Amino acid sequence: xxxxxxxxxxxxxxxxxxxxxxxxxxxxxxxxxxxxxxxxxxxxxxxxxxxxxxxxxxxxxxxxxxxxxxxxxxxxxxxxxxxxxxxxxxxxxxxxxxxxxxxxxxxxxxxxxxxxxxxxxxxxxxxxxxxxxxxxxxxxxxxxxxxxxxxxxxxxxxxxxxxxxxxxxxxxxxxxxxxxxxxxxxxxxxxxxxxxxxxxxxxxxxxxxxxxxxxxxxxxxxxxxxxxxxxxxxxxxxxxxxxxxxxxxxxxxxxxxxxxxxxxxxxxxxxxxxxxxxxxxxxxxxxxxxxxxxxxxxxxxxxxxxxxxxxxxxxxxxxxxxxxxxxxxxxxxxxxxxxxxxxxxxxxxxxxxxxxxxxxxxxxxxxxxxxxxxxxxxxxxxxxxxxxxxxxxxxxxxxxxxxxxxxxxxxxxxxxxxxxxxxxxxxxxxxxxxxxxxxxxxxxxxxxxxxxxxxxxxxxxxxxxxxxxxxxxxxxxxxxxxxxxxxxxxxxxxxxxxxxxxxxxxxxxxxxxxxxxxxxxxxxxxxxxxxxxxxxxxxxxxxxxxxxxxxxxxxxxxxxxxxxxxxxxxxxxxxxxxxxxxxxxxxxxxxxxxxxxxxxxxxxxxxxxxxxxxxxxxxxxxxxxxxxxxxxxxxxxxxxxxxxxxxxxxxxxxxxxxxxxxxxxxxxxxxxxxxxxxxxxxxxxxxxxxxxxxxxxxxxxxxxxxxxxxxxxxxxxxxxxxxxxxxxxxxxxxxxxxxxxxxxx
Length: 745
Ligand code: MOS
Hints:
The protein is an alpha+beta fold. It has 18 helices and 30 strands. The strands form seven sheets. The chain has a seven-stranded mixed sheet, with helices on both faces. The chain has a five-stranded mixed sheet with strand order 1-25-19-20-21. The radius of gyration is 27 Å and the shape is globular. Dioxothiomolybdenum(VI) ion binds near residues 244 and 249.
């Protein structure tokens, strides 16, 4: 089914089941420990051997000598694979992941050997016996130093070219109020709960990989490319995924090495990365430097807006299947605010660290940390309330293109106004350092949120089984987000069945290819695929009932046509009726600027003696098109807000700039917010939000919106509390304390 014009009325508008806060279908399985993750397919391979990846101890250079004799003789060892004996593999940048294919070291903890043994402990112990000699080369590990050599990235598929409209320099020169600021954000790690893990199993020349992955058809393509076998011989299973955040959009050493070793040994091989390996072996969000220039009239209207970003990465031929994207922190600035004279520019420098890759709203998540702080600084210069300043610069079309490219649905102003009212924004004192609660300095902060709305092809099969139950099958993934539930809700709504009559099976490439989970495109695209399949099934059922498909409706387990009611169970009495179809998206995202919007409001307390920051409460008002399930959508936003608090206050991969690796490679020292850090968070979705230009479901992306802008609301609140503006994320108390007055005791 092609989606190339605005969706008219359709069966999903009934919203008897869609739009309702149904509990997650997979909830009981997870609570009971019965949802199986990649490492847990014990029954399928009771004789699986265990692999352990040995990572490089240097960041850049080459292996000059390897001694594996002791490892090979160690108890239980079945195989020691290094670049000296690894099977030949193929490399296609961004679409393959060869491992151990040469003696070169591209980044610290890159795989240099793979040991397979009867037990995990034996494999790990043997790996420690391998002796390696390296010749070390000088690498580039410091974005500040590499910045001067940064260039426009040309290899990446996104639109990295500079944009410019009007005469920015003239507008800045003539603006009565201007701002020029530079912000820094650090490298960050995805830090999802489930480590990367794969079990590979060969049956003849057919490979099955049970792996933790967000995008099954990418995994299938990548492994087939790497091994040089047809995709038709690869099956990827990923029924449940314990979080991804971008880290599992691609595969790493576990995926390729388990497949290679299992083939060689004629025995299933499983491997899970240790927590410590994840930080340097996989990928990370690149650090950024961002320069923002704003110019405005005294009336507060922006006349000039410029955003440049610098990030770093390995060259694409060294970045595995990530494709070495840049962290496009300036992209949202092309769309968010009005301003006749404007520019954005993305620059990428070479860094010899683990590949920089998509993480939790790549681009916007860190771009808004800078832009929304700069907007706060500018509002203060203009003497304007930061909420009013944002509202004043709202725009209903793509500001780089003009009115011919309107937003499909943009309700940022309503988000800001409703949020301000519910939060009690009018209690804020615009002068920093004035609000107190005992020894706590209190501050309020606001930030806008925007996240691009992406949609992608997605297919599903729906089967009306004898007895009248409906089964949905799709290679979609559920990475903890609620895919099972909303896809079940869609099918139930479309066929007029209760949700309890629907079963959903996901995460297997034996099912029709689906959107996968990434870039907030999953929910909207995958439910649209279910919609297409259900439309096809409705037509088949109508034909079977001998009625015209046009006037038919489905309700209460019946097909209804001209007053005739036929139980669905009767139609499928003697044989199952199934339909498979998918959605393909045309170019409506080009005709209409499409994005989800929101506004975050935050209250912090800062200890006036120690500069300890506590977030005290936070409210997000979001506009994401139709909300398919308010419960799962709310959970997505709460997660995003929590991550935003982490970005503001604690998340940082610390680079050893001499040796070139992330030092804090565990969750004891890579800090993410825990329960004690997260107070009362609330989310409101705007009522009546339906985006007919986005999809048949009239929804937009939700998953990543919650993180976009949050960190800036936190740091703007810190400024309001203290009068100290830290432009180097995260805002840890040492940076804050320097600027705070010494309190009189
Ligand atoms: Mo997302 S960072 O595209 O999983």
